[in-house]
Design a protein that fits this description.
The chain has about 300 residues and is mainly alpha-helical. About 70% of the residues lie in helices and about 0% in strands. It has 14 helices and no strands. α2 crosses α14.
């Protein structure tokens, strides 16, 4: 009697081939050997240490050369308060006006097509191409006593050159590009689709800007305003020409530092200069926070966000 042979076990299927593990490069932009990378990093750090950190340390070393009380005594001078007040006033006027102009110019250039668009872009860059001293001389030629508009202004009781108003105008000129040049690339990358969709749904111009465009350019706008503020407080060339350097009247902090240095008051000059350094450090901190927030939003895809 035939018996059924036990069924042979089915051949086991071969285990799936394991994908080869490819080591991921660790944040390498190039395939250069480690020695080359570290050499480049060392050169960059050495350059920054020699030409950035060391001069800043020297400013504070000279400022405190005669001790803390001498340092504070130099900062308690009435001329220092006047220079700081005029510097802050100039920045307080120049930065908001440049923010308004920069937003309007960037909006017009990136969202509309019109004749002379490229000319407008070129004109925005003029302050970058012209020396600040030349910019100051232009204001003297226009608004000085012998300038184009000088006699008319004087006849009507107006004086611009050698007054705080001339300093503000010169600062406005040299800081025009900062906000616009920061916003134009951001708005170009954003495109027009969101704005066109908002308009098609019945949104007005202000609603489109405030609820659609503004949330995507907030940090770019803040970054441009920070750069504009730093330039406004530290401007020397154009302001030096139109100010007349009248002590306690038309001396900003950079101008007063030069006045003290020329009078051989080195401790006073470096003490006042340290105020500019502290303002610059504060500006850098705010700038780094703005950049960090901007990168964080870009990484999370937040730039496409629009307000409800």
């Amino acid at each position: 009697m035939a018996t059924l042979a036990p069924a042979s076990p089915a051949p086991a299927s071969p285990p799936p081939a394991r994908a080869a593990v490819v080591p991921r490069p660790r944040n390498r932009a190039t395939g250069e050997p480690p020695l080359v990378r570290w050499a480049l990093v060392g050169v960059a750090l050495l350059f920054l240490a020699l030409f950035l950190v060391l001069p800043l340390v020297a400013v504070f070393a000279q400022a405190f050369e005669r001790g803390l009380f001498a340092y504070l005594g130099q900062l308690e001078q009435r001329a220092v308060f006047s220079a700081v007040r005029l510097t802050l006033l100039t920045a307080a006027v120049a930065v908001p006006l440049n923010v308004v102009f920069g937003v309007a110019a960037a909006w017009a250039i990136t969202k509309f097509d019109f004749p002379g668009k490229q000319l407008l872009v070129t004109l925005i860059d003029v302050p970058f191409a012209v020396s600040p001293v030349i910019s100051g001389m232009v204001f003297v030629l226009l608004f000085g006593a012998q300038g184009v508009f000088g006699p008319f202004l004087q006849a009507n009781g107006w004086k611009i050159v050698f007054t705080p108003l001339g300093i503000i105008l010169a600062t406005l000129f040299v800081t025009v590009p900062f906000v616009a040049r920061e916003l134009i690339p951001v708005m170009e990358a954003q495109g027009r689709d969101d704005e066109e969709a908002a308009v098609s749904l019945g949104a007005g111009g202000w609603q489109t800007f405030w609820r659609v465009t503004r949330p995507n350019v907030t940090w770019g706008l803040l970054y441009g305003a920070i750069l504009c503020n730093a330039r406004a407080m530290g401007e020397f060339g154009a302001v030096s020409v139109v100010s007349g350097r009248i002590r306690e009247v038309t001396t900003t902090v950079p101008l007063y530092v030069e006045i003290l240095y020329n009078e051989y008051n080195f401790v006073g000059a470096f003490a006042v200069a340290s105020l500019l350094v502290l303002l610059a450090v504060l500006t850098l901190v705010v700038q780094q926070v703005a950049e960090w927030r901007s990168r964080r939003e870009l990484a999370s895809g937040a730039p496409a966000r629009t307000e409800a």
